[in-house]
Amino acid sequence: MYYYYYYYYYYYYYYYYYYYNYYYYYYYYYYYYYYSYYFYHYYYYYYYYFYYYYYYYYYYFYYY
Prior knowledge:
Layout: H1 2-63
């Protein structure tokens, strides 16, 4: 009886351990790709912003 209880104790322990890690890594990669997507567009936003002002000042000093 004690062995039986011990067996199920470890069974549920590893089951919930696996279940917890599964959702932990799921949300980890979810936020990882979410913020990667966010900073990716954030980077290109500033890239074109910089590009715009570069040509703005270029033509400004060129014509004036």
